Amino acid sequence: MIAAIVSLTILGLSIGFSLGFVAKRFKVEKDPLVDDIEAMLPASNCGQCGYAGCGQAAEAVAKGDAPVTFCPPGGRALAEQLAARLGVDADLSDMEDRGPMLAFVREATCVGCTRCFKACPTDAIVGAPKMIHTVISEACTGCGACVDICPTECLMMEEVPETLSNWRWPKPQPQTQLVSTAA
Amino acid sequence: MSRLTPVSGPHTHAQISIQRIMLTVMLALTPVTCYGIYLYGWPALNLFIITLVSAVIVEALCLYIGKRPMKQGLGDGSGILSAWLVALTLPPWAPWWIAVVASICAILLGKQVFGGLGQNVFNPAMLARVIILISFPVQMTTWVNPQPMFSEQDPGFIAGLNVTFNNETVDWDSISTASPLGYLKTELTLDRNVAAIMTETPDWQSSLMGVTAGSMGETSAVLILLGGILLLMKRIISWHGPVAMLATVTVIAALFHQANPEHYAPAQFHLLNGALMLAAFFIITDPVTSPNTAKGQIVFGIGCGLLMYIIRTWGSYPEAIGFAVLLMNCFTPLIDHYLRPRIYGRNRKGQPLAIQQRDQEEQS
Amino acid sequence: MKFFSFKGGVHPEGNKTPTTSEAIQSFPLPARLYVPLQQHIGAPAKPVVEVGQTVLKGELIAASQGNVSAAVHAPSSGTVIEIAEHQAPHPSGLPVVCIIIETDGRDQWIEHSGETDPWRLSEKLIAQRISDAGIVGLGGATFPSALKFNLGLKQQVKTLVINGAECEPYLTSDDRLMQERTGKLIDGIRIMMLGMSASEAIIAIEDNKPQALKIMSAAAESYPELKVLKVPTRYPMGSEKHLVYTVTGKEIPAGKLAADIGIMVHNVGTAYAVYEAIFEGKPLVSRIVTISGGAVNQPRNLEVPFGTLVSNLIDYCGGLKQTPERLLMGGPLMGLVIPGLDVPIIKGSNGIVALTKDELKVKQQSACIRCSRCVSACPCGLVPLEMAANIKAGNFDRAVEYGVKDCISCGSCAYVCPANIPLVHFFNYAKGELVARQKAKQQQEYTAELAKQRQARMAEVEKQRAAAKAKALAAKKAREAAKQQQEAAQS
């Protein structure tokens, strides 16, 4: 019996080591991960993540230096996509599913200083000197650069309001009791 | 205007539930179980009870450790059903610890470690059977002739307890016997011809009624068939798997018997002995481990039948139900992947159907 | 006439007996009507009335916005007291903008007249009248009908299929319409055929409506181009894809419409609305609604003006026996839970069903045992158990492989699931998620493009600035050199 245990242990260890060695030595070069990741990012180079631009951030994520939850405008959806692409398990449970935030100009306090549209990386703000500015929602990526720079603090980040046209069914949760809609 | 958690339809349901399905299968198994207990006496009853009770205990423990809802997990009856099938494939006079180990293997290894109900790849009853067959070959191949209850051969309740709990003290040499399939295999290795062996094994009437040595599930083919018909009528199972399996075995056995009557047993011998009938109606129709579509079930049934015959005839085990089913369970995901139903509006490859030229239609 | 049998489908209890012999009654005018601007698929209509304005019945109160939209007309005469948000008949509980009309009790129609010679109308005019009348698909899909007519003309649709299947339990509004207003319905169908130059119309009626079959067959006898087809009672017979297959044996290819294979399907209610629009000049202002369910005291079929609150209808039907376990707009299989009684009836409301706990029959959810009843029940050939498992795990791509995009959300799978798994909920969630991801991807590509363009522009600006600077520097140097030269020349 001792002989059996010893021989099987030796066998297991040696096979395990050789598998590990082969995995390292004959590793297949990975495909262009960085380009794929960069394509997923908002490309607005807003800098909220702390990296100089989306390109550098993509490299960092590909290397594993940055977690998949690093991009605030990307939110949970982006984190899920990155996790899927990298093949990692990401604990996204503490990421609130906020939905996209868009910039919004409170027109009462806008002085038309033009600083915000110069700062916007996607030209989403239209305006002219001394004219009230406004944000084109379709072009806004929620990076927040305009909010930081506005001198009168009239720019705010607001959640996209949920209406009948953009409402979606939420994911069914495992239920412990039968749901009754009896009012 | 409050934001509600939306409730989705449908808001009506067919009169079916998992519990109902499990209970109906147990109902279908009751005739053959009662008959088996009657045939093999008190030890069989003891074994049956021990199997079920240990299964419930193991399941409760697993649910508790896994923090899963206990009431639902125990209440749906799936664990009890697996244990019931295990009990039907054990030698009726096996010791109590065989029953306990079998239950543990079935529930713990066969179901709970995979994630609970619906997650297992292998049939839990067959997995348990194979594990203990390989681990304890002596106890698992010790068969007795029927010692019907309340007849002269019945050892009585106290003696029955002794058999179950004090197994080593039983005088096995005088009462153990080979099952018909086991007898066939050993005699064939001694180069005797089939016709001669057939005269020494139970005739087909006895096999039909099940008064032979074997496990409780190997007894009355008639009662199993009745149970199977109940399941078919209640639409718990579909006919594709059972018919495919039985037909395959019949055809192949008949072909080989025709080709070489000396060496290969006739089809009815294979059909009526061993656990083939039980497997066809109750084992391969296990929803969790069998394919999703009718076509898939036919392929599954054919595969099981084929493997059963091959292992019985050329393998070293006389009864192949466990191995055949486990091997086919490995193929279930593959079968499911390739044999999917065709989606409306698409062809078999999943491409949208081509629009036929309407001018041609109007001309013709 | 021959019919084809689609595979799958389920047989829920009909539960139509409470209302199948209830003739359509007119509903007495409520004090207020809450008429939503969005009662159809497409862009919401835009109000053309102001607060305080008096309107007559049938007057246009909101105009259609673009091609995929529909007009809204006042369901009764009265004064517009508000244009504001009100709770929509939608499970989310979200509001919808409504034009709130205080009725004056006179129910006075605006001046209207039917066409003098409707059979001589051109297809274009027929489509125009339908569009002006604000007619949308009354089977529940509420797709703008005029758009469908134009599509039918373009695709040279030859076969018009009239959907009289009404496969949902409890609902009998279409049944009663076919029995009571047969003549007008037949005229409506015939004018629809004219409107799309179809050569034949097949009226499909399930065999659980023997009276309707008899009456419609008799009425259609005089018109050889109209055929009444008895189809077997099986849910979801009323689904367009499955009705087309049953009637013609052809399948609508994935991603395409029935018009692409020369067939157009319209509900009987829509056909009746077309009759009223063309023969009587009346826009769509009311519809027949079945009020039923175990929790309602007196189930009935009512002709209800749009904007009527469900509470008014329930009160007219004797009130509720008990608090309903589920309050639905539509049938129990595909109907939507409405957030309360304070929601208006809209163009797509074919029924209000208040179910008791016994009728609900849905039990607590448990684990999938892979029994494949859902696969047998699915009329579209999908594998619901695999789709749900993949959606739960977040593998939307694999769910699409198994066909979640082809799912019609009929509910047959969840109906038969022994584990009471909310399959339809999973698929609706997945469909919404896929749409959202598609939108997000398009948005992301768009903004990335904008960002690139901006960077290119800024680089260009930088370059120009640098060039100008270099030029200025060069000019300065040249001037200094010239000056030096001059000084040198002078000295």
Q: How much helical structure, as a percent, in the residues of chain C?
A: 25-40%
End-to-end C-alpha gap of chain A: 70 Å
- Specify the number of helices of chain C: 15
Instruction: Determine and state the CATH class of the domain at 17-26 and 111-304 in chain C.
Output: Alpha Beta
Sheet with most strands: strand arrangement of chain C: 1-14-13-17-15-16
Measured distance between first and last alpha carbons of chain C: 117 Å
**Shape estimate of chain A:** elongated
As a percent range, the share of strand residues of chain C is 15-25%
Strand content of chain A: 5-15%
Question: How would you characterize this protein structure?
Answer:
The complex is a heterotrimer of chains A (183), B (364) and C (491). In chain A, 35% of the residues lie in helices and 8% in strands. In chain A, strand 2 and strand 3 form a beta hairpin. The N and C termini of chain A lie far apart (70 Å). With 364 residues, chain B is mainly alpha-helical. Chain B is 61% helix and 1% strand. In chain B, helix 1 packs antiparallel against helix 13 and helix 5 crosses helix 6. Chain B is globular and about 75 Å long. Chain B has one domain. A two-stranded antiparallel ribbon of chain B has the order 1-2. Chain C has a domain of 204 residues: Rossmann fold (3-Layer(aba) Sandwich), CATH 3.40.50.11540. In chain C, the strands form four sheets. Chain C has a six-stranded mixed beta sheet with strand order 1-14-13-17-15-16, sandwiched between helices. A four-stranded antiparallel beta sheet of chain C has the order 2-8-7-4, with no helix packed on it. Chain C has a four-stranded parallel beta sheet with strand order 11-10-9-12, with helices on both faces. In chain C, helix 5 crosses helix 8. Chain C starts with 16 loop residues before the first helix and ends with a helix. Chains in contact: A-B, A-C, B-C. Chains B and C meet through helix 1 of B and helix 7, strand 16, helix 14 and helix 15 of C.
